[in-house]
Structures are given as structure tokens and as C-alpha cells.
Amino acid sequence: MNHDQLQQSAREHLLLHFTRHASAYAAEHDLLVLERGEGPYVFDTQGRRYIDALSSLFCAQIGYSYGEEMVSAVADQLPRLAFNTNWGTAHPPSIELAQRLAELMPGDLNHVFFTCGGSEAVEAAWKIVREHFDAIGQPQRRKAIARDIAYHGVTLGALAFTGVAPMKEAFGPPPIDVTHVSNTNAFRAPDGDDPEAFCRRLLGEVRDAIAAAGPDEVALIIAEPVQNAGGCLIAPPGYWEGLRAIADECGALLMADEVICGFGRLGEWLGIEREGVVPDLASVAKGLTSAYAPMGAVLVSDRVAEPLYEPGVLLRHGITFGGHPLAATIALRNLEIFERDGVLENVRRHEAHLEERLQTLRSLPIVGDVRGRGFFWAMELVKGASNERFDKPERDRLLRGFLPGRLLEAGLIARPDDRGDSVLQIAPPLVSDAAVLDEIVDRLHDVLADSGRFMDMVGEPVAAA
Length: 465
Ligand SMILES: Cc1ncc(COP(=O)(O)O)c(C=O)c1O
What we know:
Helix 4 (about 65-80) packs antiparallel against helix 11 (about 325-340), helix 5 (about 90-105) runs parallel beside helix 11 (about 325-340) and helix 8 (about 195-215) packs parallel to helix 9. This protein is about 40% helix and about 15% strand. It is built from 14 helices and 17 strands. It has two domains: about 30-60 and about 340-455, Aspartate Aminotransferase, domain 1 (Alpha-Beta Complex), CATH 3.90.1150.10; about 65-340, Aspartate Aminotransferase, domain 2 (3-Layer(aba) Sandwich), CATH 3.40.640.10. It starts with a helix and ends in a 9-residue tail after the last helix. The protein is globular. By secondary structure, the chain is of the alpha/beta class. Bound molecules: pyridoxal-5'-phosphate (PLP). Pyridoxal-5'-phosphate binds near residues 117, 152, 228 and 259.
């Protein structure tokens, strides 16, 4: 199909995820249809090139130039055994990948349950947690603690952990009893400029939530090392050690949701390694294959997995395609590429430079805060020196009206978001060099400067389509 046919056909047949269809398929503009990638760049069906400063939604860690290598990896596997499950049987790629992950992951996260993506991983983790407590004679542990605005996925179980109310309300009462506590957004917190006091207050809130839920009824504390929704919220020093201690005190398990932070986004295999804490479980997806195939996994510690190996204990959870041989083969090759091409090292090498360059954006009145870690950053967008928040009509004008088109015009894919406060986020491919990172920041500067001018102009609010 040519460009026009694709546009027409998409309008007629393709339902888009998390999309206002009336707006995405509006006659005044084309839908962005990407057909090719190269390094950190993607190209649309009219040949326009964009820097993918979002790594296809935090997935494309190694960028887009490893297709041939991936083809050669699956060329052997596909004719040999295209598929077998991990339901009571297995195949070499899933076993080899599980072993490799056990070797690479921190601590004793030595057991791997494969899924097809992040929501499935979060949900499978919950089932494993529940099976663990049933098996050790604590079946009453059915509650969890998660954080406000955090996104942990959309299947109904995972959605229970997600703390974004508008995404949940329509779908009825959550099947898991989850208490949401404050996240680690320091920017507007009254004690945000005093990390010790901030940390103490946040951990106090977790303790209070556990006391209210009943300490022997809480099964899980789940959090991301750097929380995505809300805009790259980093934890104050001591926060994760505090979560670890609280979980241990009350006998609950601690889980890092690493769907975004894992596989190099923060310069380590798991983002949590930067906090010096080993969780009991971790959910991963996206970067596990650098999105050359869909795959997720739950990584489980020895202690959590142990009861599952007891005679007669049945793990009551399974997903047909979890651990698919082709996805596992691609994941193995992805991990090889990470090591061979120094992907983690590239992030570590460039993090300070990227941060320094991004911090210069604070000179723009529309940028109130710049926060993040590794190759994962957010600029919080504000009304000027007072750091006032944009109201809903203003957010519609800026985040849904102006920015999407202006970013594309600048040849840049980045993410305007207001699940929490208004932010513009980037997460470049982890193979990006200094020149690409500089180009991203230069383009961001132009786009944000124009955004400030746009918001200063008098105009009628655009309605959210
Ligand atoms: C932290 C986190 N957990 C879970 C998910 C759900 O992953 P998926 O979209 O692969 O189901 C996401 C998706 O972005 C995520 O960011």
C-alpha cells in the first residue's frame, strides 16, 4: 500500500491503543505511520526522518540497525522448532534465556517466568506472590501497596496496581485490594528540597498504609525504580532501603517493576541496582528483546520460588506464548549485543553529558523542572516563573494540540504526558552517541521555546478531540 492507501485503510480498520481516534484520524493531518528504522532514527511512509527519542515507547534499547543479526538468530530456530510452550514442557531457547538472566540479574533473582509483555508480567508476578503465600501457609496475604499515578499495565489485575484513576474507573472495582501511597515527586512536595525529610515522610506513609491494611494481610509492595507516569520520578536517597526494610518487617514481598527501567535504561541490567537493593521479584519486558520480539518476564528470588518446587504445589498460571522460542532466541541475541557493543557502558558514559545539556532547558520559562536518570528524562512544563500548573484547557492546547505536531515538524519523537503534571519525556535508544543526544536537546529547546510562545499567545482553548 502507498502512503494514501495506508492512511485510508488505517482510518477504516485500525483501532489504536490509548488514542483519541477522532483526533488521530482527523482529516487535517496524517497519522504517523513509520515504516523503517536505522540506528536511533525512524522514517515515515513519506521518507521523513525522526530521531526516536522515545525508543518506541521505551523499548528500542539497541535502536533499529540489528534486524539482520536478529534474522540470522532466528534463521536457525524457526525451521528447527517454531513453537513449543512452557506449559509443563520447555525448549532450549527459554531454558538458555532463563539461565542467562539468572546470571546477569542482581542478587538471587534466579527463577524466570516468561510472558508476552509488561502487563502480563506484572499480573503473573501477583499470581506467583499469591501462590508463594498460599504455599507457605499465609493465604490471608491478599493486599498490596503501590504508588499514586504509577502505571503498571492495563489488564485488569495489573490495572489494580496502576494508580491513574481515569484509566481505571470505567472498568469496575479492581480485583486486587491495593492501597496507593504518595509517589516520589519532589518538585511540588512541601519537603521536596529536603531529601531526608521527604524520604521519612514517604516511608511513614507506606508504614501507615500497611498498618491500616493489616501487616499480616499485605503480600506485596510494588514500585518502579524511576516512576514513569508523573514524569521520571526518582526516589530520594534511602527510600528503597526503607521499602526493603518495611517489607521485611511486615513479611511482605518487594517488587521492582522494571518494564521501563530494566535493560539499560538507567545504565544497569535492572534500574534497582542503582539503589543498592535486591527486590524479591522484578517484572521486565520492552528492553528484554529491545522490541525485536514481544516478550516479558517475572524474575523471582530463590526464597519466593522455593515453595513452588515443593511436591504437589501447582503454579496456577500460564500463557500460551510466554517464552516463545523465537522471542527467547531474540532476547538471547539482544543480551549478547548489549555485552558485545557495550550498551550499558554507553548509557553510563553519556548520562552526565545528557543531564548537563537537558538542565540548560531550565532557562526556558516553560520548563519548571528537569528530572530523570540514565537515558530517561522528563521536563515538567509550567506557566512561568511561578511554576504554576497548566489547567485542563491549557493542557489540551499544549500537550494534545500544539506539541505533537510541533515535535514531528522538528523531526523528534518525544512524549507529552499529563497523567500527573504536564511533562515532556524522552528515553532515547541506549546506543545514541553524544551527537544524537545533543541533537535531541537542541530540537527540544526549539520546540519548548515555541511552546512557551504559543502558550503566551492569546487564543481560544482547543477542545480535546
Ligand atoms: C512500569 C510498567 N509496567 C507495566 C507496563 C505494561 O507493559 P505492556 O504495555 O507491555 O503490557 C508498562 C508499560 O509501559 C510500564 O511502563
